[in-house]
Amino acid sequence: MASGAGETEDDVSGAVGVLRRVFGYDAFRGEQQSIIEHVITGGDAVVLMPTGGGKSLCYQIPALVRPGVGVVVSPLIALMQDQVDALRALGVRAGFLNSTQDLEERRLVEAEFLSGELDLLYLAPERLRVEQTLNLLDRGKISLFAIDEAHCVAQWGHDFRPDYLALSMLRERWPEVPRMALTATATEATHREITARLGMENARHFVASFDRPNIQYRIAGKSDPKKQLLELLRTEHAGDAGIVYCLSRASVEKTAEFLVQNGVTALPYHAGLDARMRAEHQARFLREDGVVVVATIAFGMGIDKPDVRFVAHLDLPKSVEGYYQETGRAGRDGQPSTAWLAYGLQDVVQQRKMIDGSDGDDAHRRRLSAHLDAMLALCETVECRRVRLLAYFGQESSACGNCDTCLTPPQTWDGTVPSQKLLSTVVRLQRERKQKFGAGQIVDILMGRKTAKVIQFDHDQLSVFGIGEDLREAEWRGVIRQLLAQRLLAVEGDYGTLVLTEASGEVLRGQREVPMRREPEKAVKAKAAKAAKGRRAVPVDLPEEAVPVFEELRAWRGRTAKEQGVPAYVIFHDATLREIATARPSSLGELGTVNGVGENKLAKYGEQILAVLSEQTVPAAEQEQVQQMAEVAAPAAGRQPGPGQEPMPEEEWDWGGEPPVEEE
After folding, report:
1. Does some domain include residue 161?
2. Which residues face 309 on adjacent strands?
3. Is residue 647 domain-resident?
4. Is 335 exposed, middle or buried (0-12, 13-18, 19+ CB in 10 A)?
5. What span, in angstroms and rounded, lies between the C-alpha atoms of 211 and 33?
6. Do residues 346 and 491 lie in contact, with contact meaning Cβ atoms separated by under 8 Å?
């Protein structure tokens, strides 16, 4: 039991006491209480709960209530120190064992485990394949096993870790110890695979709603993704913390450099950087405000930074599961946040080529194709994004009214005739010329462009030359993209040439219609983005008079975190500071009733917080006098733009010498 939590709790009722005294909350959320009670009484559990839903409490509290040490299996070696620091700040006796420690550090933690001086021990899965670690656990008393990020056991999942397959032995070696498998994302198929591979057929299953109502999902047509990203940051997320995902290391480096050139604090993160630099960049992201990390998907799992305001994808994710998990890293504090994706024709071509060239058998490639098809369906839908996203996980929902398709509903149009024209062009090239070309050449032929390449191959002599002059280039690229998404066209070879599929003939023969999505006009989208920005301007549920108090509390938290060398959220989450700023407690007793202020933090920080609040308490008469003086001093005209005023026009932005738009 945590030393900061009082006497040993040995029954279910003790869970509520631990919640209040250690974590500072009065009530559980959602399924938390049912899960905790089930595990405390010795039951196994498979828990599917979204990021920010409070999964960690589901194993932390049972570990504090049950006798012994809770062993947490986690793949997140780089984050274990922060996880342990956060628990120690609450008075919980936590430790970890991983490859970053020297021999003396490991021996100290092992001694604490054997002497019962730990409440929670974090281990990487590979350590449970080492006999020395297994013997250590045999000699101690274990209260439970918590297998975090359990989807890593799914062999065909996006985060597969082979070491997770060995965790089924936990039941055989410690049959009396309850086990928990926890994940923030899983389809029904992955759910079943977790259960089977971990040997948890008799476990009770808890599935929470996967809805993240505070996240606004937006998918934009890709033109110049770096410039589009910068516009998003400058108009909606200036000074915010965020994560930008790119497919390649080169793209990560170029994007981070571009953002830095344009005044954004941006750091690259990918496997090509040495471990020291990756750790440094991750630490800065966690500890500093307003840092943007540009990364491959190697970054983000387990990142417990509550105030990530946006997640942006400059390349198409490979699956809906990956997209959901990555976007879920935004808005863990419940505040409005953005999930933004730039999507275009080249994404589809690139992903199809990667699947065709992937290792594995045909069945494996079919699985990858099915994952991509679901992601493309999400991008091309004319329905609510949230409805489509939740449906993928088997959950029903009504239209959210907040995603891009709800705010600016796209139109549909009959793309049958343009599809026939395009497919006919592919047919003519293959049958009459024995040639295959990519999207660029096909569009040039349709639009009647006599480019050097068109003249070189005599493509201006084809009967289909110029039959598509009624559509703009962007529209033709949209037709190709949607034909690829609907499997009516395919990509072949290293050069991304376009070829017919079995279903193409149905369109050419007039046996199948081809409905297509038409993107809303830019002006309409800009209006929706402006509306979204307005909703995010002020933290939710924070009265106007509490804003300066909240900012002072955040400044105090930043100084304190820097002094202690820990992320700011280890001191207090924003949600707790907002409640303090609104309630303005005047005594330790009142402060102790605020959510997120447990006994340990009250004793450690209570007087400092009250001091900050007392400095912010200004008599009403003095406030009025200050306001009157400010109004007199303010010039009537010629003032510089201030917060909330119109931003600099786009034409005045410094694009940092960005090259012209690249052809997709």
Report:
1. yes
2. none
3. no
4. buried
5. 20
6. no
Structural domain that includes position 312: 215-409
Strand 411-414, strand 515-518: pairing: antiparallel
Give, in order, the Cα–Cα distances in Å from 115 to each of 66, 108, 137, 141, 286: 16, 11, 12, 9, 33
pLDDT tens, position by position, 391-400: 998 898 889 9
For residue 243, the cross-strand partners are 293, 311
DSSP code of residue 20: I
Name the pTM for this structure.
0.79
- pLDDT tens readout for residues 46-102: 999 988 788 999 999 999 999 999 999 998 787 788 889 889 999 999 999 988 888
CATH number of the domain at 95, please. Answer: 3.40.50.300
> Are the CB atoms for 102 and 127 separated by under 8 Å?
no
Q: Do residue 468 and residue 575 come from a single domain?
A: no
Q: For residue 360, what are its two tokens? A: 């594995």
Q: How far apart are the first and last CA of the chain?
A: 58
Let me know if residue 124 belongs to a domain. yes
551 vs 465: CA distance, rounded Å? 63
Q: Which CATH number characterizes residue 599's domain?
A: 1.10.150.80
Q: Indicate the number of domains in the chain.
A: 4
Let me know whether 419 and 400 are in one domain. no
> Comparing C-alpha atoms, which of 137, 143, 138 is closest to residue 64?
143
562 in the same domain as 473? no
Interstrand relation of 120-123 and 69-73 (parallel, antiparallel or unpaired):
parallel
- Domain membership of residue 539 (yes or no) is no
- 292: β partners: 242, 266
